[in-house]
Amino acid sequence: MHRIKDYFYHLDDFALGLVILFAAVITGTLLKFILFKLLSIYNRSDNPLLVRSLSEHLNRPLSFLIPLLFVSIAIPFLPYSAKTIYALKRVVEVLDILVFAWALIKLTNVARDMVRKKHQLDKSDNFRERKLFTQLQFIRKLTIMMISFIAISMILLSFDAVRKLGTGLLTSAGVLGIVLGVAAQKSIANLLAGLQIAFTQPIRLDDVLVLENEFGRVEEITLTYVVLKLWDNRRLILPLNYFIDKPFQNWTRTGSDILATVYLYTDYTIPVEAVRKEFENILAHTDLWNKQVSVLQVTDSKEHTLELRALMSASGSGIAWDLRCHVREKLVQFIQQNYPEALPKLRTELTGAGLPSLPKHP
C-alpha cells in the first residue's frame, strides 16, 4: 500500500514538473508571438527596413530562445531530485548556447541587409559598392566562423570531463600546435589570402577577370575559394591563394568603365578617313557608347593588309562586348557595300610561261 502511494506521489511530482515546463514554454511562445505581432503592426504602418529585417531573420531563432529562457527560469522550481534538475540544467544550457549563437549568426544577415539597402550593387557605376560588399562578405563569414567556434567551445567547457581533459592537454599544446599548423597549412594560407584580398582587393565581387584562358565575373568570394561565373554560365572555382600567387587580368580594377577594341584587316586601297567617319557615325547612333573615347587608327601595315583599330569606351564589360560586336558588324557591312575592292586580297602575276610568279606586295 505504501509503495502504491509513493508511486502516485512521484507520478504527481512528475506531472507537476511537466505542467511547469509546459507553462514556461507557453509563456515564452506567447511573449514571442506578442513581440513579433507588434513588430508586424509597426511594419505595416511605417515599413522600416531594420524592423522588417529583424522580423524576417530573428523570427525562428527567437521562437526557440525565448521559451528556453523561461524554461531555464522554471527549472529550479521543478519538484524533481537534485540530480534530475542538474541534468536538465545542462541540457537547457547547451540548447541556450546553440540557439543564441544561431540568433547572432542571423544578426549578420540583418547587417548585410542594411548595407545592401544603402549601397545598391545593380547600378552601372558600382565600384565603391563592390569594394564594400567584398569586405563585408569576408567579415561576415569570418564572424560566423568565430561565433560557431566560441559556441562549441563554451558547450565543451561546460562539462567537467572535457575541462579536465583540456587542462591536461595544455602541457602538450606546443607540439599539438605544430602538428595542426603543418596539417592545416593550406587552409591557413587560404584564410590569410582571404584577409589580404578583402582589404587590399585585387579582386572584388562583380569584377570582370580573364584567367586560365577564361573570361568571367566574380560571383562569390568565400573563406577558401572564389567562384567565377564564365560567359557561358559555367562556374570556375579557384582557391584564394591563386589570386595572390598567379597573374590575371582584372578589367574593372579601378572602375566599371572599360575600353573596347575592334580590329579590321583591309587592303591597302581602303580610304581610312571614310571608315573613320563611318565609325564615328555608328557610335553616335548607339546607346552602348558612353561618349568618352572614340578613336580609329592604322595600327599596323602587314605584308598583305592594313590593320585598323577602332577604340571606344563603354560603361561596363557586358556593354563593351555588345558594343564591339555592333561596331564590327557595321564597319564590315560599310566596307562590303561601299568599298568591296578594299577587302583583303592576294595579288599574283602570271608570267609568259603561264605559271604564277611569287606573290607581290600590295
List segments where confidence is low: pLDDT < 50 over at least 5 consecutive residues. 4-9, 169-176
Strand count, sense and barrel status of the largest sheet are:
5 strands, antiparallel
CATH topology of the largest domain: SH3 type barrels
Percent of sequence in beta strands? 5-15%
- Rough outline: elongated
Shape-level CATH architecture of the largest domain:
Roll
- Supply the helix-strand structural class: alpha+beta
Radius of gyration (CA) equals 35 Å
Q: Report the span from N to C terminus.
A: 123 Å
Strand order of the largest sheet: 4-3-2-1-5
The CATH class assignment of the largest domain is Mainly Beta
What is the strand and helix layout of this fold?
Elements lengths: L1 H44 L3 H26 L7 H37 L8 H31 L2 H10 L3 H11 L1 H16 L7 E4 L2 E8 L3 E6 L4 E5 L2 H4 L3 E2 L7 E9 L5 H13 L9 E8 L4 E9 L2 H22 L24
Antiparallel strand pairs: 1-2, 1-5, 2-3, 3-4, 6-8, 7-8
Helix pairs in contact: 1-2, 2-3, 3-4, 4-7, 9-10
